[in-house]
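Whether sequence alone determines local backbone shape is best considered at the level of individual chains. In the encoding step, the backbone of a single protein was reduced to a row of integers, each denoting a local shape. For completeness, the protein is quoted in full, as a sequence line and a line of structure tokens.
***
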Amino acid sequence: MRHLPIAASTTTEAHDAQPPLTPDKNIVEAPAAKPTRDAFATSIHEYLALVAVKDWGGAEPSERLNAVSVALRRTIAQRLVETERRYADRGAKRLYYLSMEFLMGRSLANNLGNLGVTSEVSREVRALGDDLARLEELEQDAALGNGGLGRLAACFLDSLATLGMPGFGYGINYEFGLFRQSIDDGFQSEQPDQWFADRCPWLIERPAEAVMVPVYGRVEAGVDRQGEHNPMWLEWRHLIGVPAEMPIVGFGGRTVNTLRLFSARSSDQFDMAIFNGGDYLRAVEQKIASETVSKVLYPSNAVAPGRELRLVQEYFLVACAMRDIVRRYKKSGGEMSTFAAKVAIQLNDTHPALMVAELMRLLVDEEGLRWETAWDITVATLGYTNHTLLPEALERWSVDLLRHVLPRHLELIFEINRRFLDHLEVNGIASGEGLAPYSVIEEGPTPQVRMAHLAIIGSHSVNGVAALHTKLLQERVVPQFAALWPERFNNKTNGVTPRRWLLHCNPALAALLTELVGEGWPTELEQLRRLETHADATDVLSRLAVIKRANKERLATLAYDTTGLRIDPASLFDVQIKRIHEYKRQLLNVLHIIHRYVAIINGGETPLVPRTFIFAGKAAPGYFMAKRIIKLITSVGDLVNRDPRSREWLRVVFLPDYRVTLAERIVPAADLSEQISTAGKEASGTGNMKLGLNGALTVGTLDGANVEMLEEVGADNIFIFGLSAAKVAQTLEHYQPLTVVDNDVRVGEVIRFLQSAALPDSKLFAPLVDKLLSPFDEYVHLADLPAFIDIQGHIDQEYLRPAGWQRKALLNIARLGKFSSDRTVQEYATDVWGISVIA
């Protein structure tokens, strides 16, 4: 048969004030020697002379930023080579983490901090006549992701490198990110996000390691010389995946792993054949179509071309990664029969689930292994992380679309499914109609391939990302598989990297923590437990309050510069920052704000505490209800911010274009963290961890990781309200929101206000009101609203006692050590991947 080739040919003072932190010697060894000042300056001048053809004085600020970054990259590249040599010498098993998203944020400040050279580089830049903090502000966020899925992947890469483990990311090098968000007349507006238009100095291009990716075509049945079935994939079109590497610097700088990102290019031979045949226009169209694959993160799936492009993107990621992994493995002399002993591949949600079929195709079609042997290798190699309990978020692809784009893979999926269902029947597990819940193929007028089923069947490990999520995954989403393979299911509660989400983004708090508990906490976050001895120390609580106030003042300045709205740093900063989605219940938050406003203007109430409600997050471009929620937030904000009766007590601000860099400003300034998703809907959440670790108190439902946060910090230090996941399910069996409206005067007032002319553009919000009053509101907003209003009143009372509030904040910081991504990665390494520290 035709074989496919594996490869084709803040401020400067803040920088300087941050104390040096020594990595825990139990985790990483001391870093190699730092670059000398002379060598660093020489690198800067060489870059400017050779690339920008300018000297420092004549260079633009962006050129200076690139010069500093490339100078630092030289040191990082040396550590990368040393790391790779260390892994090769030890014959290390490697982990490859596949994700459609990697929300990396900015790299310069993070790399400087992890290398431990921030102060030295700051002084060098100052000596040249510029300010390092100013240059850092010019760096674009790497727009390779959207929300929690991508940010978790970024945290994991940081932890793998910090722990000294051979773990590498694989993703797509999107030319355009999701979109840049602006707010125009209260509505979300989307603009292209060409994040590396001026080139990214952190991407190391590897064109010699490009890979070929076949798509489309047809499959022709055949037999080999031994009479065995030997299908041939013919007439396929191929894309070229060109890799570039982004170095991932571990804390301490000894280990540098990589995130390998692939850009799609058209095949010169294929396109030139068309071109030379005289069809010039089609040749150009083919090139454009090929390179569209890596143009944009998540093209719209509302129309057929968008769905097809998404599927091609997912296969492009899988195929590029598979070929690159095999190339690396064979280069080390490995035999495919022992592949799983040296390679672990983690599927971050269902987007890379085609890896099950792709690995089987490679092993059976290209390597000539027997099916049974290939299947054992596939299952032993792959692990699958589920990130959602929402049925609509569990990917399905139509059989017809798969047949069109990946005909050979569809055949393999059918065969995987046939053998699996035969196994169930032969062993008396299920038969007849009882096979349907297990089948990878969902029958119906338009048969679908259930990608979560494929990932579960083809992996040796299936994990959720919080204890409650894993429990509900097993009991509600795929109970049939949990009963069949209880040993495959396990929980890995998410975590965040304390380097970026405390050490880097909140240097004043980090300095205080180092003073109080020692230097080891950035790599051993549980060491923050020592803070508890200071829980009643008035001077410590006062210093904590001063740090929080300074962070709030900085955010107030940013809010004014961004929106023109002045907010009071003395007010309680009530923060909800996350993707806009009905289940995350930004709408519930707005209903509470309306309640407060109505109580002031109609009831004559004087609030106990002034509040500033801070929102940030993007709605998917085609998600009507989410975009209408943004409009409601901004309309309510316009009203309460201008009304002289309320503006002293209420402020509402929506900060546009939520991204890692903006989160790094908001997180240290938050007093209250809103984690109010409908119980049973949120897989884990990581914003709750970031905000809590920086001293915000959490108000939340018993959902996702909130359950475990409650266990860690104690009921006195978190504000829990609302229906449990079990109660939500019971409520929905007979839900009557109008009964809640009739029985609680506060809820009735809020609904009437939403429907009244007192709210500008009130007619725009009729769909939201209709959903709130519908028995089919699966997010039970009104059922939880009375309890939410009540807990918010209790929060006001607590905030009136500053010492008590700061004590709770300190205990949250002290007790959230469990939620480090280092702990999560260590659990994966031991239980799933079988990788270890390579010192």
Notes: The CA atoms of residues 183 and 558 lie 16 Å apart. The two ends are 44 Å apart (CA to CA). The longest helix spans residues 61-90. The chain is about 45% helix and 15% strand.
